[in-house]
Amino acid sequence: MKEYDNIKEFNLPPRDILNAYKRVTNMIIEKLENYEITKIDTDNHDKMVETISNVAYISSNGDSEVTKLISDMYDELGFPLITVKKAPDGITKSTITKGYHFDMIIRDALYVNNEDRVAKYKNCDVLLFDHVIGMECYENILKPLAKVF
Predict the structure, then answer these.
(1) pLDDT at 28
(2) 62, 74, 112, 148 — which has fewest CB within 10 A?
(3) What is the pLDDT of residue 98?
(4) Distance between CA 65 and CA 70 in Å, rounded?
């Protein structure tokens, strides 16, 4: 394919290149639409885990360690929601979160309560807002709630 590395060798106007690209894209879409789509049998646990394993293998670019982690989680937990993230330390591991998890960081040092500079609480009540809490909100909602609890 070295002879095609430089597109300028074709001496084609940009419009023709774009039209050729669209034609090729449409041809690929037509081919894909002709493939048979089979429904995955979700009642057959072993078949579902095998299917998930195949999808995980392809999605992880053939990484057998990641494939095994995902397959094992599906096998053990029965089709959970799995989120995959790149670990900052480069170590592949799995973590199971029971309940809800919010990707949110409380940056105020007021909430830090241990030497690791992390806020860890047990049996606490959490009130979430999707906006900045102003003085009016504090006076009318939060202050009266604090008196109740």
Answers:
(1) 92
(2) 148
(3) 72
(4) 9
